[in-house]
Amino acid sequence: MSRRGRWQTAAEVLGLLGRRPGITRAAVAKELRLSTGSATEVTTRLRDLQLLSELPAPIQGRGRPTTVLAAHPLGPIVLALEIRQGGWRSGVVSLDGSLEQLPPRRHHSRRPGTVLSALREVVAATQAQYGDRLRAVALAVPGTVRGLVLLQASTLDWTDVDLTPVVRDTGLFLLTGNDATLAGVAEARTGAAAGAGTALHLIVEVGIGGTLLLDGVPVGGANGTAGEYGHTPYGDRSVRCPCGARGCWDLEIDGRALARHLGEREPDDPYSYADELLRQPSVRTRQAIETVAGALGAGIAGLVNAHDPAVITLGGLAVPLRAAAPDAFAAAYSDNLMAFHRSAPPPVLDAAHPTDGVLRGAGALGLDHLTSEASLTAWADALSRS
């Protein structure tokens, strides 16, 4: 078998491991249409390269015993980072997609240089702990990103920010992506949208973002900036959004909208403000919550009319918002669908990864890099020299 062919099969095996943790060797062979001998050969090679480990699978009826595949305890890892409005989160991701989440931290300052410097310290500490096992850093950002530049994050008041200082002088590979897009990747890989050919994921935090996924792959658009659903004109056209556009949906479905409907000033931390209201809804807040839930349902219907997804998944504050006003959400969703959708509307499901989907999606982005031919070759070469 050629070197390229060997790596191609190895990458496919590792990809299955990331999407289906705990998969058996027999299931891998069936999924990839490998003979028993070929499956044994490739898993043995991956074990020798410290990329996976194998444990005896529980015996279920007759048939030959098989093994359960897992990430090797000395194998490569990815550091996943997530910048949020109020702080940042991080976690270490292994080849089987398992996430070891680290304690969240709050920003001392939202200035780009300060935030990126703090993240650089996390990268350095992780590199000191794991050594050469750390192969890449995957950074999720709350805004529009192109390559390694954050073009615009209105909630942070950042524009044209170079993200490369996060890995400066570390020699590590940096990958970046929009937070909502990466949360959608997590749902498509191992969450509520797994197996759906066309899925729409939406996440509400400060504003709303999301992604359309085709067979688990997010649609990036011509410049990789697709998914800015919060900046579609589903809102009040008299209101100017911080992004520069008018009437953005963003302003109708988060803590800023709740405060406006309650006659209160715009909160400094719209996410925490909305989270508190939704945890303890009251008679005073009921109408505001119903109005915002209706705006969410109506906008989702518009996206269904445009994209025709098989399923919609919701993350972040969208989950408790719908739960707090289910009738208002359902009525707005149904009323704004085109007539032919109403008899069998796409289901709207809560995310399977409601709190850590962004980190898991960033990790998936990193694992795609680790299982590329170039990365596998570099890992094998480094192992042979050690």
The CA-CA distance between the termini, in Å, is: 26 Å
CATH superfamily of the largest domain: ATPase, nucleotide binding domain
Assign an overall shape. Answer: globular
Number of helices: 13
CATH architecture of the largest domain: 2-Layer Sandwich
Helical/strand content category = alpha/beta
CATH level 3 topology of the largest domain = Nucleotidyltransferase, domain 5
Provide the spatial order of strands within the biggest beta sheet. 5-4-3-6-10
CATH class value of the largest domain? Alpha Beta
Short précis:
This protein has 386 residues and is α/β, with parallel strands linked by helices.
Describe the protein's architecture and organization:
It contains 13 helices and 15 strands. Strand 12 and strand 13 form a beta hairpin. It has three domains: 69 residues, Arc Repressor Mutant, subunit A (Orthogonal Bundle); 135 residues, ATPase, nucleotide binding domain (Nucleotidyltransferase, domain 5, 2-Layer Sandwich), CATH 3.30.420; 158 residues, ATPase, nucleotide binding domain (Nucleotidyltransferase, domain 5, 2-Layer Sandwich), CATH 3.30.420.40. The strands form four sheets. The chain has a five-stranded mixed sheet, sandwiched between helices. Strands 13-12-11-14-15 form a five-stranded mixed sheet. It is an alpha/beta fold.
